[in-house]
Amino acid sequence: MIRYALEDSDGSYFELTGVSIAQPTRGSVTISGERFNYDNKIIENSSIPGATLIGDPRLASSSIDLIYVRVHDNINAYMLAENALLVWLKKTVAIRDITNSRRLYVTIDNIEIRYDDGSLKLSSENRITFKVLKPFWEKTTVTTIGGSCSIGSNTFPFTNDGSLKTYPRISINTSVAVDDIEVYVDSTKHGIIVQDSIFGTSGFTNLYIDCKLGTVEIYDGADFVDITPSILGGTGFFFIQPGSDDLKVIVSAACSVSMAWQIRNYV
Amino acid sequence: MAAIVQDGIQIIIKSTTGAVITIVSDTDDTGNILKLEMKILKNGGLDRFSFSLAKNTDTPITLNAICFFYYNGTLWDSGYIVNIPEPDQDNPIFKVEGHGWMHRLKEKFIDATYTLTAFSTIVASFLSTYLTTDLGVSYDAGKIDLPVTIPSFTIYFTNRSVFDCIMDFINICNKNYDTTQYRFWIDAELELNIGLIEDTIDKVLFEGYDYQSPEVEVDRSKIVNKVLAYRTNSVTPGDLQLFATYEDTVSQDKYGIVEKKYVYPGALTGTGIFENMAKALLNKYKEPIERIIIKDVEVINDVPFFFKLYGISNKRDKYWFLVGEYNSLINWDQTNKGVTTVITSDITHTFTHRRCIRFTTTTGSNGTYIEYTLERFILFPTTVRIFNEFVNTPISITVGFIDINDVMFEVELKQIVGWTKTIGHINEQIDDDDLFVNYDVATEAELNLNYDLSTEGFMEVGVLINDGVATIKAIRVTMNSDTAMSMYLDRIEIESESYKYHELIPEEIKYLLSAQLGIADISFGDTEDSLIDQIEEKVEDGDLALAIYARN
What we know:
The complex is a heterodimer.
Chain A: E1 4-7, E2 13-15, E3 28-32, E4 38-39, E5 58-59, E6 62-71, H1 75-90, E7 94-97, E8 102-115, E9 123-139, E10 143-149, E11 152-160, E12 169-173, E13 181-185, E14 190-194, E15 206-210, E16 215-219, E17 224-226, E18 243-251, E19 255-261, E20 264-265
Antiparallel strand pairs in A: 1-2, 1-7, 3-6, 4-5, 6-9, 7-8, 8-9, 9-20, 10-19, 11-18, 12-15, 12-19, 13-14, 13-18, 15-16, 16-17
Chain B: E1 9-14, E2 20-25, E3 33-41, E4 45-54, E5 66-71, E6 74-83, E7 93-99, H1 102-106, E8 109-117, H2 119-130, E9 153-161, H3 162-173, E10 182-186, E11 192-196, E12 201-206, E13 215-219, E14 226-232, E15 240-247, H4 249-255, E16 259-264, H5 272-285, E17 289-298, E18 309-324, E19 332-333, E20 342-346, E21 356-361, E22 369-379, E23 381-390, E24 397-402, E25 408-412, E26 428-430, E27 436-439, E28 446-447, E29 459-464, E30 471-479, E31 485-504, E32 506-513, E33 518-525, H6 544-549
Parallel strand pairs in B: 12-18, 14-16
Antiparallel strand pairs in B: 1-2, 1-5, 3-4, 3-32, 4-7, 5-6, 6-7, 8-9, 10-11, 13-17, 14-15, 17-33, 18-31, 19-22, 20-21, 21-31, 22-30, 23-29, 23-31, 24-25, 24-30, 26-27, 27-28, 32-33
């Protein structure tokens, strides 16, 4: 059985099938009704014989149902477990599939609690419908490449095994000033150039370019300092396509570079 | 006044005598303040505000009471209440509205004359005289920062509001709009400030991360890049005499020639004053006016948006950047062209626009080059298009693209010799063998094109720029032969997938704040708040702009 959990914005999660809540003495958790919708948006130009497809196919909005059957022997245990679930639902931003180390970004669309027919609230079937905000499952683990860079152009081959583009996080470490960093994907020529005179000087040895969050920061030993003003105008955050490509890194001094990303798949 | 160290919004409401009437806050679970809206302008500071309370909130609030706004425990701004809903309204939400102190400045009118007085003296005298207690705004000489380069002049204020007079001062400060910008505001201590807007980027905002779907407007209707200076004839005042023209050829290269006629008083002599004014006009209007509005920008931590310079990166897309139209030799470094290679501006072999550059080579030309530095780097280029023409025996000429690390990628124009252009303009691509091949768009068949240099016009060459070139900062054209020849270069453009980047200062910021949410709508853009904007078509004796530019 796949172990599912509710995840909040801090990355903490509440396992539905594990030990973090009082388990029903008789019951089950299932994810059902996960629908994968693909809306082939076609615009036909009827003036041309045979018509022409000129629309872009795209993913339609999807939803997913979580059905949770709970049965307890006493009402206190039932209420405790049920309220714990509702508290977590309030702050849920993703459903986590612990078994396969991945998450699905969602928001609650509807909660339906159907109690048993008896006079005591000892059992219920909960149907929680989530609206899927991003139409992909994202790995909770990261894939990383990288290594040492010398002055000039450096090449790091990589393969994104996912089925969608994803946004990487670049980490650069050095103990000498590196005032020019050019990072781009070779095939698309999408990239970012950071020209910062502080990076690499004493106490400022780690620089992070997070293309998922849209931040460029230097860690000063205590805080992450925003250095977006050091981004050369016109360059910026980029994605990596599925498949193999090269990461090009051009630097003005020796340093080490790594790129980490989370694989994304439709299903 | 002690700050209240809490997250969220607090408003201390005081009487006009300074006594605390009440404190409202959203920092506890009772949520006295449902939301706070504030509109802040670059010049003047807080314009309007409103905050909402539940109707049954038990707190006294009076008209003209002074509100001190705290955000996350920091005193931020202040204003005064102008409207309180009637208590018998049906709406359960009680919306209190107020103004910033700039409105008091707009409501007071004065007459004043300063005759041939230093600018700093005029400002100090004006502010110490007219910022009186009834306005609620006071003067502190330490909060006035003025440019030092403005000498004495005469100024008349007749039935003019204090606000407009101060805006005149700001316009004078901004006479060199392209290099420095000043603003004025009233701070939370109810004191007037005049200061220079910092010209370093405070933060770069990205579409898709910090905001979505910006409203972008580029107004080219006000471009002026050629000033025709006319003077009224002192003998026959009805006659106008053209006595000088002033141009910005870089702007003309980009947008074509846009002339505007200005008429100056006939009694003026010398050209310095006209040149000063024309230069200011060209600086202000040589480029189109950009405006960008971004909405629902999240306000995190402290109030993060100030009237500073921001970088705005609109979404990454495919753009063609014009490297040069080459209507002039401006910005071409000819240091290394040698003595035998002749570089001239030419009008006889022009494909687009007005002129092109003619290269004439002969013995000694081999290895000579000229270099053009771009106004702004082109980043992550993918394709370049070069429009050039040989009119007699072609030689090898390379066009080099130099990146910010001085690494050069070269395109050799010799490769295209011998082809005849038989259809429109061809769009070349590089095949696997690195040769230029031409494709028929309809059939995708390879075309056998022979370029007849003697009869055909300009050639458009498409080149995929190689791996390893991430930036282009300069173009170098190098002669590779001593053979006598003429070549014309008319235009170079480069395709790049990049963010559309702007550097702009906010003009207006609207905040919607609560303990749960903080968002801002920000309007960025060029304003008209330069002294030169007072010049419409005719310059009159007594114009403030004339008084200032006559001496600068």
